[in-house]
Structures are given as structure tokens and as C-alpha cells.
Amino acid sequence: MTIFGAVIDARPLFPRERRALLDLLAALPPEDWSRPTVCPGWDVHDVVGHVLNDYMRRLSGSRDGYGGAVFANDETLPEYLARTNDQFVQATRQISPQVMIEMLDHLGRQLDAMWATRDLEGPADLDVSWAATDVGSPAWLDIAREYTEFWVHQQQVRDAVSVPGGDDAELMGPVVDAFARALPYTLRREDRPEGTTVTLEVTGPAGGRWFGTRQVDRWGLSPAGTEPAARVSMDQDTFWRLATRGITVEEARKRADLTGDPALTAAVTTLLAIVA
């Protein structure tokens, strides 16, 4: 039994996910770039600018060791990210879609090269706070988290312009798997006897089952569980949208099948896999 579960190697999928994004963006007519997205106050152009910011920030920090913007006095991590993300997005409003596409293509290949040098089981460059706050994250989870970031933003663009795609099991499966690693942290406030198990089932080609099991002093992931005290089942589209708050907790609960201990099922359906 571990906190984070088995290794996810998302590295081979970055080029394919990016190719799908670049092909999508290259085909968009000018008017689609101004369509609103689920991200409050951001249109398609803004979301693409944010992805470009993600590329630049990871290369600057993880490859070049550059610290970047500093925290303001008493600023929390969510406040810091909201401020710095918005500042960058506002700046990219001066950049054409074509230039952003070219920069994503160029910098994305540099990111691929950087990820390839990483020891997956070494320490993360950036800990994944939605999976644990009291222990360091492994590099593979940090890299998988970055993959989910890029994939989710592509889906937000696709939703905005009504062009489905990029959601086959190979591309989406690691996103669902990575988000499920938030299960132990999601259950952290629920004290239960050691061995108590909660099953999270995500249905669909990209789905699977994950078992949160109570250890002596914390929850962890186990390969399989005993008879679960609670079970939560939802389809893969509902799950990733819940984890990123593309839908509300209440909407996710309406779509889910919840059985067993009501406090545990309620906790599972608050699962969050972003910093908010």
C-alpha cells in the first residue's frame, strides 16, 4: 500500500496530445478564438495563452532553475497562481494565434526533451499539493500532473468551439488515473478504523478502479480492497470535470452512483485535482 500508487509514465503522450491541440488550433476560424470558455473571464485565446505560460514556466523553472515571480505579502498559492496566470494571459492578448501556435510547437518539443531526462521515481520539481501536502511527490506524479493540465485545457477549448476529440482512452486514461491519486488526500478528514476501504470506480474506456484504504494514521492507495465501506461510481466525463471543477460537486453527485457510508461518499465527491 502506498500514498500515491503505481507509477504513471505520461511522457510518451505529450507529443501526441500537443499534436492534437496544434491541429485543432490551426483549423480554428478567427471568430472561434474569442469564444468564451468554462474558465471565468477567459476566451479561447486566453486559455491558449495560459497553456503557453505553462510551457514557459516549466522550462524556466525545471530546466533553467529560474525562480520567476515572487509571492506578494500574505499571498496564498491559489492567489499567487491566479494573479500571475492572469498577468500572463493579459500580456498574450497582444500575440497573434499563429505566433502562439508556433511557440507551443517549438517549446513543447523542448519540454519533451526535458521530461525525458527525469528519473520518474526521483523527487518532483514541483510537489502535487492536491495529492499530499506533508510528503514530497515523486517526479512521475509531477509530470503526470502537467500532462493533465495540458489535456484539460485542450478539452476546454474543444468544448468552447464544439469540436470533440483528444479523448480516446490512450490520451485520457492517464488523466483519469492521475486525478484518482487525489483520493487519499480527499479522504484525509475522515477518521476510520485501519483497513477501511473506499472504492472509486470511473466507467468508460479511460476509466478504472482505485481503492483508498485507511492505514494507521492516514489514507493510502491499495491494489485492491476488502469489502468497501463506501463506493462511488461515475463516468469518465463526469469525473474529470468534477476533479477540475468544470461541474459542481452537486452536479457530480447527481450523476454518480453512491453506496455505503454517506460521509465517505460525500468526501469522495469533493475530489479536487487542481490548485483552487
UniProtKB/TrEMBL annotation:
<keyword id="KW-0413">Isomerase</keyword>
<dbReference type="GO" id="GO:0016853">
    <property type="term" value="F:isomerase activity"/>
</dbReference>
<dbReference type="InterPro" id="IPR017517">
    <property type="entry name" value="Maleyloyr_isom"/>
</dbReference>
<dbReference type="Pfam" id="PF11716">
    <property type="entry name" value="MDMPI_N"/>
</dbReference>
<protein>
    <submittedName>
        <fullName>Maleylpyruvate isomerase family mycothiol-dependent enzyme</fullName>
    </submittedName>
</protein>
<dbReference type="InterPro" id="IPR024344">
    <property type="entry name" value="MDMPI_metal-binding"/>
</dbReference>
<dbReference type="InterPro" id="IPR034660">
    <property type="entry name" value="DinB/YfiT-like"/>
</dbReference>
<feature type="domain" description="Mycothiol-dependent maleylpyruvate isomerase metal-binding">
    <location>
        <begin position="16"/>
        <end position="157"/>
    </location>
</feature>
